[in-house]
């Protein structure tokens, strides 16, 4: 019997590979490394399992052809490198998979595609249709047109979101590190963590973010954060090195397993918690905080003390307590300009058209307190 049946038995698996596993700074894309990974994924497909590949490497693959040395310091150069590198990366994948008779489809996503609810649904439908047609989707951030910070290969969070969007049964995060260690193995004795059931298991672990070869920015902290996002939504996760991909997908005891710690939420709940981008904030009094947090009640105008931001009805907003802690996130029923006249007023005292909940309980998810950079998700 396999050591990890939840991984070995996953009918649909998302595999994420980092830039450091596919490229080198001097030479760009390494076809031999890429082909080795493709052979592993083709073998998984031959077992009747479905695979979605989240692949970094576009920017790194474009550096050498453009004669750019080192990581670009400006956005335009990074976008240019992505433009050249994305073509090379996907064409190399397409040729390698074609030898196994597998058709690939490219899916380029921006932050907007996952933070806007309609785009999120469209991404889900596209991935589902590609899989139904027998294609293997290759997902990457659309670095060529992204206007926010571009990070080399830091697609760990994207992979966690894709695992839910694609309704995957498992997620495997691959890099050049064997798994999560309880210390830095480069500086002293360190033990590989075999199994994680929740953030408390890693409370005493310092997670590294250092770049090992200059082409990737996804340190172990980003992988652990992504693993907790996916495992908290009911998806088992393995974090390991790319050479151990076959063993990991076979359910062997390699790398670090993050066991599912929660039920799979609805698409809307997951989107609200992890993918939506708040357009504003509603400030709550203590009574409203207790009602929302302890009784899972809807938010009424009487419990709101202030409004921050310029949002429209049905936009996502944060619900914030008097101490500044984010209590929940939800879809607001009113425009920002409508709310000031409603604040603090009891529902029966309002005009009939304003007597509905400001945020209905079915359009709300509780969230933890804001976390500091580099800390584990709460």
UniProtKB/TrEMBL annotation:
Residues of the signal sequence?
none
Q: Any one cellular component term from GO for this entry? A: cytosol
Q: Name one GO molecular function term.
A: ATP binding
Q: Subcellular localization, per the record?
A: Cytoplasm
Residues that coordinate or bind ATP:
16, 175-176, 217-223
The principal location of this protein is cytoplasm
What processes does the entry annotate via GO biological process terms? L-proline biosynthetic process
UniProt xrefs under InterPro entries: AceGlu_kinase-like_sf (IPR036393), Asp/Glu/Uridylate_kinase (IPR001048), G5K_ProB (IPR041739), Glu/AcGlu_kinase (IPR001057), Glu_5kinase (IPR011529), Glu_5kinase/COase_Synthase (IPR005715), Glutamate_5-kinase_CS (IPR019797), PUA (IPR002478)
Supply the alphabetized keyword list. Amino-acid biosynthesis, ATP-binding, Cytoplasm, Kinase, Nucleotide-binding, Proline biosynthesis, Transferase
What pathway does the annotation place this protein in? Amino-acid biosynthesis; L-proline biosynthesis; L-glutamate 5-semialdehyde from L-glutamate: step 1/2
> In this protein, which residues make up the domain named PUA?
280-359
Which reaction does this chain catalyze? Answer: L-glutamate + ATP = L-glutamyl 5-phosphate + ADP
The superkingdom listed in its UniProt entry is: Bacteria
Q: Name any one Pfam family assigned in the record.
A: AA_kinase
Give binding positions for substrate: 56, 143, 155
Give the EC number(s) under which this enzyme is classified. 2.7.2.11
Q: Which NCBIfam families does its entry note?
A: proB (TIGR01027)
What this chain does, per the entry, is described as: Catalyzes the transfer of a phosphate group to glutamate to form L-glutamate 5-phosphate.
The similarity comment for this entry is: Belongs to the glutamate 5-kinase family.
Which protein are we looking at?
A: Glutamate 5-kinase
What is the organism of origin for this protein? Geodermatophilus nigrescens
Highest lineage ranks of the organism? Answer: Bacteria, Bacillati, Actinomycetota, Actinomycetes, Geodermatophilales
Q: What gene makes this protein?
A: proB
């Amino acid at each position: 019997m396999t050591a990890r049946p939840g991984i070995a038995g996953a009918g649909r698996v998302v595999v994420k590979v980092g830039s450091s596993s596919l490229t080198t700074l001097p030479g760009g894309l390494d076809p031999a490394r890429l082909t080795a990974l493709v052979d592993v994924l083709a073998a998984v497909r031959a077992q009747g399992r479905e695979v979605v590949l989240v692949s970094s490497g576009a920017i790194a693959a474009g550096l050498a052809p453009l004669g750019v040395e080192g990581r670009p310091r400006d956005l335009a150069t990074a976008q240019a490198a992505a433009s050249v590198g994305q073509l090379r990366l996907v064409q190399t994948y397409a040729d390698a998979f074609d030898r196994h008779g597998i058709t690939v489809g490219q899916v380029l996503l921006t932050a907007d595609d996952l933070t806007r609810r309609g785009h999120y649904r469209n991404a889900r439908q596209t991935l589902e249709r590609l899989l139904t047609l027998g294609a293997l989707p290759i997902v990457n951030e659309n670095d060529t047109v992204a206007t926010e910070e571009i990070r080399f290969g830091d697609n760990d969070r994207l992979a966690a979101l894709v695992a839910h969007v694609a309704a995957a049964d498992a997620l495997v995060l691959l890099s050049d590190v064997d798994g999560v260690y309880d210390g830095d193995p480069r500086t002293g004795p360190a033990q590989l963590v075999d199994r994680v059931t929740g953030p408390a298991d890693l409370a005493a672990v310092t997670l590294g973010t250092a770049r090992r070869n200059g082409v990737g920015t996804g340190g172990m902290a980003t992988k652990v954060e992504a693993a907790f996002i996916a495992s908290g939504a009911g998806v088992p996760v393995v974090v390991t090195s790319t050479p151990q991909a076959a063993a990991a997908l076979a359910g062997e005891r390699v790398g670090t397993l993050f066991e599912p710690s929660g039920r799979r939420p609805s698409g809307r709940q997951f989107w609200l918690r992890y993918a939506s981008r708040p357009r504003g904030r509603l400030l709550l009094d203590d009574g409203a905080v207790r009602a929302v947090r302890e009784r899972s009640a809807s938010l009424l105008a009487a419990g709101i003390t202030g409004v921050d931001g310029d949002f429209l009805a049905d936009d996502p907003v944060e619900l914030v307590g008097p101490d500044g802690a984010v209590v929940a996130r939800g879809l607001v029923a009113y425009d920002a300009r409508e709310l000031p006249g409603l604040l603090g007023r009891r529902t029966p005292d309002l005009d009939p058209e304003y007597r509905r909940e400001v945020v209905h309980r079915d359009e709300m998810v509780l969230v933890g307190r804001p976390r500091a950079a580099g800390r584990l998700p709460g």
